[in-house]
Amino acid sequence: MGVVQKAKGKINSLAARFYLASPKIVQCNICQWEGKHFLGTHWHPYTVCPNCGSAVRHRLLFAALNLKQFSFNNLVAGKKILHFAPENILSTKFKNAAAKYITADLLRSGSEMKLDIANMSSFPDNTFDLLVACDVLEHVPDHIKAMQEIHRILSPGGYAILTVPQKDHLATTFEDPSIVDPKEREKIFGQADHLRIYGDDFPQILTQAAGFTVTVVNESEFAEELVKKHVLFPPVLSTDPLATNYRKIFIAHKS
Ligand SMILES: [Zn+2]
Fold first, then answer.
1. What are the alphabetically sorted keywords of the record (predicted)?
2. From ligand 1's centre to the CA of 36, what distance in Å?
């Protein structure tokens, strides 16, 4: 973690302690912090937990693990888990409950393995029960190969929990490998290191590429009261045309 990030973290936790502590209107369903409201990012105001840094997608993912069919006990507890681009707060929860837990990343340091999600030949077939990759595939040149690799290393009956940035109401995923200029990528895909912008066809791509059965979980699965309390949906919609207002958790099942 860099000096700036550390300083930001300190300021955030101070803000949490002194300025946002009451009244207790929102609660992070991951770290249990409670307060007036969450902090903002340049994409979305009031969405980031000042204590653990969780965003809407992380809290939605955690909420999804409360659903009967995808419960924490069924998907995480006692399982063999591979976690790509691991978020600290999720990492701690998964590591404590899993039978085997490995973190991996191709570009960022701090993970146990340097691993390309599109080429995981260091693992034999059927190695893991669960793979978690939040906002990873948009960085991967051959995402179809990545989906096939995810399917291959999962054991039959295993799950992948995936999130990707999506342009709201875009039907078909858009990519153009000829766009290589970081500024152009930022303008078209939303970030300088993103290689595509996903549309509503993401679950179909997963099915076609690798044969996954995909369940899409969004805030509509949960009571309105819980959505507001845990901020499972942005309280203020971003007007940025590339913002993902309508976050979804994709739970891909290998039969
Ligand atoms: Zn939190």
1. Methyltransferase, Transferase
2. 13
